[in-house]
From TrEMBL:
This protein's name: NAD(P)-dependent dehydrogenase, short-chain alcohol dehydrogenase family
Keyword Oxidoreductase: yes
Family: Belongs to the short-chain dehydrogenases/reductases (SDR) family.
Top-level taxonomic group: Bacteria
Keywords: Oxidoreductase
GO molecular function: oxidoreductase activity
Pfam families, per database record: adh_short
Signal sequence annotation: none
């Protein structure tokens, strides 16, 4: 899928991996919609890149539908969706205060997994209605999982389960949407220097970086964005889950 002149929607685009992706796609000539719960963050990034700020919740059908329609009305059919919105939690299944509250598990699953699927289903329905371009393509979707899907640590049951669901979604979604000319792929990043990690003390950041085989540093969000670019533009990548982690394999804790 060509990026230049194409309309792209990035969820979680107000910060972190989503912001880096929105900026790279805009630099390559895409018309970018920055979709985020934080309206100020979405407006800041959209203002910088000449994009469209879209405020809403990825788990809401109304918000997601409104975002897709608004972006399409302003910039043309949405042919690229990059799902970066997500949350994390660190709670043991059985901790000092007893069993993990079910609501905490449900919240992570709802935002990360159900939110991703909600955006995928609505965007792919929109894409399926468009005329095909080169290679009979109508769109491409890139989801964000995590190495926690494979190497989930103690305290990451909810997060690992949500990202494992996104990982398992790649192939069946790609197979089903192939008839419309829509590709679906997933990137599973390792330990990246996102705003959340940037708040950790330098010592903690250095300790995390030392656990990564090569290069022994935290990932740069720009490297994630470049992986998204590659997946979008290489039309033969479909149904794949790509680890982007410097060779790290997370230890139990």
């Amino acid at each position: 899928m060509q990026i230049e002149g194409t309309t792209a929607l990035v969820t979680g685009g107000g910060s972190g991996l989503g912001e880096a992706t929105a900026r790279l796609l805009a630099s390559r000539g895409a018309h970018v919609g920055v979709f985020d719960r934080n309206g100020e963050a979405a407006a800041r990034v959209a203002g910088d890149i000449g994009g469209v700020a879209l405020t809403g919740d990825v788990t809401s059908e109304a918000d997601a539908s409104r975002a897709i329609a608004a972006l399409a009305d302003q910039k043309g059919p949405v042919r690229i969706l990059v799902n970066c919105a997500g949350i994390g939690t660190a709670k043991r299944i059985v901790g000092r205060e007893g069993a993990m509250p079910l609501a905490d598990f449900e919240r992570v699953i709802r935002v990360n997994l159900i939110g991703t699927f909600n955006m995928l289903r609505l965007a792919s329905a929109h894409m399926a209605e468009q005329d095909p371009v080169a290679d009979n393509a109508r769109g491409v979707i890139v989801n964000t999982a995590s190495v926690a899907a494979f190497d989930g640590q103690i305290g990451q049951a909810a997060y690992a389960a949500s990202k494992g669901g996104i990982t398992s979604l790649a192939l069946p979604a790609a197979r089903e949407l192939a008839r419309f000319g829509i590709r679906v792929n997933t990137i599973a990043p390792g330990i990246f220097l996102t705003p959340l990690l940037a708040e950790l003390p330098d010592e903690a950041q250095q300790s995390l970086a030392a656990s990564i085989p090569c290069p022994a540093r935290l990932g740069d969000p720009a490297e994630f964005a470049d992986a998204v670019r590659f997946v979008i533009t290489n039309g033969y990548i479909n149904g794949e889950v790509i680890r982007l982690d410097g060779g790290v394999r997370l230890q139990p804790k």
